[in-house]
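Hi V.,

Quick status before I head out on leave. The structure for the redesign project is tokenized and pasted below; the design run finished overnight.
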């Protein structure tokens, strides 16, 4: 658990971040401008700041410099531009790490754990508690370690597949709307259903199931997707009862 300040002006991204980070038992405060962020860090102690660089009041690099002028709290910058020169400049100017938008909260959580570990002392550091492993039937997912296993065998998942599985595993038995998956896993407020369908079908293949014969992943048409333990295998039909003929 860490005390976090999220600086993000997009209300949609912000509320998704707050919700998920709070669910991961962090204490989260959030502001939408650089000046508010400066005021917050001057008044409240934080373990880490997540700083969006596209803020309405100050240029991101400027905001980072001013922040560094008053505190050495670890800062992860979130940038919309995958621009190497810009990223190098930010890291030189005092950012501890960066994420290119859109990013998933699972990705942010992993970066946060690494930054806090380096900062020496965040409670996210070290091995996660056993409760940080989500178990659904024979499936276990450890979001911080980014490991997933099915019946004890490690699953080889891409980043997005892992994020999707991890998000669903945190809500077993709940039908998660597609819109929510786009927002929470893809960090997009809109998008096309095909993106989700394609990743679902890859994930299904790795879980050894198909849409026609689902075990863990269930698509609820027109609503969303749900992950739940497979229902018991249908009982093997009893052997044909002995006939009078066999008794003879
Ligand atoms: Ca922004």
């Amino acid at each position: 658990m860490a005390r976090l300040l999220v600086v993000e002006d997009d209300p949609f991204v912000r509320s998704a971040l707050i919700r998920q980070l709070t669910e991961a038992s962090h204490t989260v405060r959030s502001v939408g401008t650089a000046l508010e962020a400066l005021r917050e860090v001057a008044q409240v102690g934080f373990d880490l700041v997540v700083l969006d660089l596209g803020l309405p009041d100050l240029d991101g690099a400027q905001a980072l410099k001013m922040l560094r002028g008053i505190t050495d709290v670890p800062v992860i910058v979130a940038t919309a531009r995958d621009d190497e020169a810009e990223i190098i400049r930010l890291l030189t100017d005092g950012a501890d790490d960066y994420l290119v938008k859109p990013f998933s909260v699972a990705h942010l959580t992993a970066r946060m754990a690494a930054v806090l570990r380096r900062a020496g002392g965040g409670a996210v550091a070290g091995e996660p508690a056993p409760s940080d492993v989500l178990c659904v039937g024979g499936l276990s997912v450890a979001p911080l370690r980014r490991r997933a296993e099915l019946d004890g065998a490690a699953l080889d998942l891409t980043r997005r597949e892992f994020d999707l599985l991890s998000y669903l595993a945190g809500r077993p038995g709940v039908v998660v709307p597609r819109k929510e998956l786009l927002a929470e896993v893809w960090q997009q407020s809109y998008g096309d259903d095909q993106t989700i369908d394609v990743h679902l079908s890859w994930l299904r293949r790795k879980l050894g199931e198909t849409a026609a014969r689902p075990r863990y992943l269930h698509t609820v048409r027109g609503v969303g997707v749900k992950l739940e333990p497979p229902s018991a295998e249908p009982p093997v039909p009893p052997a044909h009862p002995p006939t009078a003929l066999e008794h003879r």
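Above is the designed sequence. The CA atoms of residues 8 and 32 lie 5 Å apart.

G. will cover questions while I'm gone.

Best,
W.
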